[in-house]
Write a structure and sequence with these properties.
Blueprint: E1 2-4, H1 9-33, H2 37-59, E2 61-64, E3 68-73, E4 76-81, E5 85-92, E6 106-111, E7 115-119, H3 124-134, E8 139-142
Parallel strand pairs: 5-8
Antiparallel strand pairs: 1-2, 2-3, 3-4, 5-6, 6-7
């Protein structure tokens, strides 16, 4: 089962603001000076940074199957064995660590002994229900 990531207004504003700014700066430079090779590499770098933000914005998702929780967020990809998940904290935000997420108030998934990851599916409740169907021993805590 595939889940899209919830998008916060701040992340959307950042993504589309940076994208718009990059286009505006390129257009302003092009209309004033034309394309000059000396400054072209800076525009390429700008477009790559904006492209990464759009890739994360539109490409962040999570997949649950019988054995694995798989996450993708831009070039960050990974999978976690559902058997190894011990606890899920709902409606919390992890400020430091692995965060393939685009919103706050998501899920902190604890697995193995000391590992944790933060994700932000569209609905935390339905995601937790699907996890419990696959591993009933997972402890779910709500904040």
């Amino acid at each position: 089962m595939k889940y899209k990531s919830r998008k916060s207004g701040l992340f959307a504003a950042l993504t589309f603001g940076v994208g718009g700014l990059v286009l505006w700066v390129f257009w302003a430079d092009y209309s004033k000076n034309g394309i000059e090779l000396a400054g072209l590499w800076l525009h390429v770098l700008d477009f790559l940074c904006a492209g990464l933000l759009f890739w994360i914005y539109f490409g962040t998702n999570y997949t649950l199957n019988n054995k694995w929780l798989t996450y993708k967020s831009g070039f960050f990809k990974g999978k976690i064995s559902i058997e190894k998940i011990t606890e899920v904290e709902c409606n919390k935000t992890l400020w430091v660590g692995l965060k393939p997420a685009t919103a706050t108030k998501g899920l902190i998934i604890k697995y193995n002994k000391y590992d944790e990851i933060y994700i932000s599916p569209l609905t935390n409740e339905s995601f937790c229900e699907e996890l419990l169907k696959r591993n009933a021993s997972i402890k779910i805590t709500h904040s």
